[in-house]
Write a structure and sequence with these properties.
The complex is a heterodimer of chains A (252) and B (365). With 252 residues, chain A is an alpha/beta fold. Helix content of chain A is 35%, strand content 27%. Chain A is built from ten helices and twelve strands. In chain A, the strands form three sheets. Chain A has a six-stranded mixed sheet, with helices on both faces. In chain A, helix 3 runs parallel beside helix 6 and helix 5 packs across helix 6. In chain A, 53% of the residues are buried. By secondary structure, chain B is mainly alpha-helical. The radius of gyration of chain B is 25 Å and the shape is globular. The chains are: A alpha/beta (252), B mainly alpha (365).
Amino acid sequence: MIEVRGVHKAYSGKTVLGPVDATIPSGGITALVGPNGAGKSTMLTIIGRLLEADAGTVHVGGLDVRKADSRTLARTMSILRQENHFVTRLTVRQLVGFGRFPHSGGRLTKHDHEMVNQALEFLDLNDLADRFLDQLSGGQRQRAYVAMVLAQDTDYLLLDEPLNNLDMQHAVAMMKQLRRAADELGKTIVIVVHDINYAAAYADRIIALREGQVVHMGTPAEIMTSAVLSEVFSTNIKVLDSEPYPLAVYYR
Amino acid sequence: MTLVSKTPAPARGAQAPFVSAPATASSAPELQATAPARAFDPDQRRKGLWRMAVLGALAVVFAVLLLVYDNPMEVGSDGFWRILQMRATTVGTIVVVAFCQAVATVIFHTATGNRILTPSIMGFDALYRVIQTALVFVFGAGALAATDGLPKVLVQSAIMIGFATLLYGWLFSGRFANLHIMLLIGVVLGAGFGSLATFMQRLLTPSEFDVLTARLFGNMSNSNEAYLPWAALLCVVVGTLVWRKRHQFDVIALGRDTAVNLGLNHRAEVIKTLVIVAVLISVSTSMVGPMTFFGFIVATISYQISKSQKHAYVLPTAALLGVVTLLGSYFILRHVFYAAGLVTVIIELAGGLFFLIYLLRKGSL
């Protein structure tokens, strides 16, 4: 369970988030949605301890992210930012191997190699395992990063816009793989998504943010109404009651 | 390469109510491992070790050549051993300096997440110069000679470490916790230290200035014999420390966010690394004076020739390459061109050109 209590963040006096309270139960996919500047990524990076909140506490799996031992946290929760740029030239397998660092301290055991292979397998990266990251397309690279945090074998996975720069095919494949990670591996996954329809199709819960505040929390069925979405995104949004999941239409 | 998931999208359970999602974290079914566990690219490891062995052999060849080539005295005579001893000091100095510069530059690159800047840009050289100058300025030229030996090495290192920790620790915490701002401030402080040192030098008496200058512009051939063992010892200690942290350096190289995600206290590790850099640069600078580009050439070439980018390969390769380059160029300049004093000058010239070419080819920082 992820518990966010009174978290507040401001940049030079201007509040970008909070104070926010939220509880994200274990299991399943939780999507953070909202317009630009709503504080989605800020909230995710504060939960993932990459950013320090000005006030409030965050507990992930019972661990206080500001006080708990960093290595213990790294075995509990992993976080992936949108943009990853490394000076080192790495192969996919080496990158994924880094996911085992919190467990092995850098010297990979047989078990670590198995976990790396499983992560590569899970994201269909076996054929690309020995390619360098700079030889991959954006979508392949994105999968390699996700494989790294999967190899980290944490109960909680935080992903900041994993669909960024992915085309339809790759975005759908990525969401399916995350869905599988939640269903088959029992991970608790929190993602920031821009496209509300991806959240509706794949998430178990949606947290809608607006101007640094949590304005709505609930199942896709509860959030996917014209009234709620129009309020959150300040846009006229129609929700089509299609099968198997509702569809938000807002293009014209 | 198509990207089709092997299983169809699993049907989601009935829309679970917000709070009662199943907590399946611990009872997750294990994935089947289909690919066999594989050791980390054994071919590359062999290649990497092979290249290191070649570099090591070259280093030994150059060291032996430097020791015995063109010794005018009869083999076995007193003079022969005397010359050998002096040359051994030179070889030892070169090994220590090359090690310091190479290791310091590589871990500096790692800690700062760039491969262009060198420690001297952060004002580490200037810091050394200002400390030496201040020593003469406050206590007089006698202080320099009177304090030689172990205590001085210790005090000097302690001051450098203290300064670097305070300065870069402060810069790298709180609201300045931004590497680029820190680098920028480092550059400015470096220039400031340089000016301060120059200003104090202006106020010295000519004789004091003379003594100081001899210290600040070191030379391989006349480095301090008494200083060498302690510098070497310091190198061994620091080298051991760095080697034990080699896996952590691999993670630090991935940048702050990834390093924190992988459970590393990034800020503390970067500060520790910068302190280690300060120690290594102070050792090197105090022996042969500032060398701006030597570390850069050695580190850059090491990234190219060591097959793996892991520090377990890059660090030894860089250190060995540094030793080979410095021993080799010293040997050639001394015995072919009879211009031993020019070694640092030539290396800086070649390094500067290399730096420019690299920068232009790469097209960006």
